[in-house]
Amino acid sequence: MMLMSWMLLACADHNDPGLTDSASGTDSVPAVDAGATVDTATDPEDTDSADDTAAPQPVAGEIGTLTADSQAADDLLYHPDGFLVASDLLGDSSLSNPTGTVLRRISLEGAVSVYAEGVDQPVGNTIDADGWIYAVEYGPSGRVYAVSPAGEVSTLAEGLSWASNLVAIDGALYVTTWGDDSLQRIDLSTKSMEVFATGGELDGQTLYIQELGGALRTVSITENP
Q1: Which pairing describes strands 142-147 and 133-137: parallel, antiparallel, or unpaired?
Q2: For residue 20, what are the β-bridge partners?
Q3: Distance between CA atoms of 149 and 171, rounded to whole angstroms?
Q4: Half-sphere exposure in the Cβ direction for 19 (13 Å, CA)
Q5: For every one of its 225 residues, what pLDDT tens digit does the chain have, with 9 covering 90 and above?
Q6: What distances in angstroms separate CA 145 from CA 5, 116, 141, 168, 221, one per listed residue?
Q7: CA-closest candidate to residue 127, choices 190, 84, 90, 73
Q8: What CATH number labels 74-220?
Q9: Of 171, 176, 165, 174, which Cα lies nearest the Cα of 190?
């Protein structure tokens, strides 16, 4: 499992708030001789403005740091309300014995807080059209969690063998379980779960599943015409 999640975000430009003295962190204002006469007239040709002192804009392809400690390790999700959600999979331990129980909320300014608690070893975060977030427990007999927009946690299903990724489509949740090489389908209204596929390539509306060994599988989620 990769412990780094990449995401491209389209963010609004942030204007430079002003000049800052790098040593003191205070606003830097040029000194004026008390005995000097200051011409306050505006030259129509004078184009001096805040643009002349604005910080350089980010360059496409440059990698920056939003926060040095997100307190999370996996499955970065962009929330449509304008923040990030990530899994604290490891907790205070390591991948060989993860103990995390939290989904983290990370603002686009880098502030980190708790979004939801009580989600054991969460991975595979996804969100549906109503703002519910779903995560699975990374383990030999894992659970599927539903997190309401208010951060309340409930269990949809359990007993999944090393579930890793999931996606919400048309009132159902599709979950990959590499422990038994299957794709599970959970009806979100009834919470019933069934084995939806165990392999093969079909036509129609399609899920694409990347296997650890390199194969890219396709699974139809609609009946063939």
Answers
A1: antiparallel
A2: 27
A3: 17
A4: 9
A5: 333 333 333 333 334 434 334 344 444 444 444 444 444 444 444 444 444 555 567 688 888 888 988 888 778 899 999 999 999 988 888 777 788 899 999 999 999 999 999 999 999 999 999 999 999 998 898 999 999 999 999 999 999 999 988 899 989 999 988 888 888 999 999 999 999 887 544 334 677 766 666 677 777 776 554
A6: 20, 11, 13, 13, 22
A7: 84
A8: 2.120.10.30
A9: 171
Domain range annotation of the chain: 74-220
Q: Which two structure tokens, joined as six digits, stand for 202?
A: 């079909």
Which residues in the chain belong to E strands, given as ranges?
74-79, 83-88, 102-107, 112-117, 122-127, 133-137, 142-147, 153-160, 163-169, 172-177, 182-187, 193-197, 206-210, 216-220
**CA 215/CA 28 separation, integer angstroms:** 58
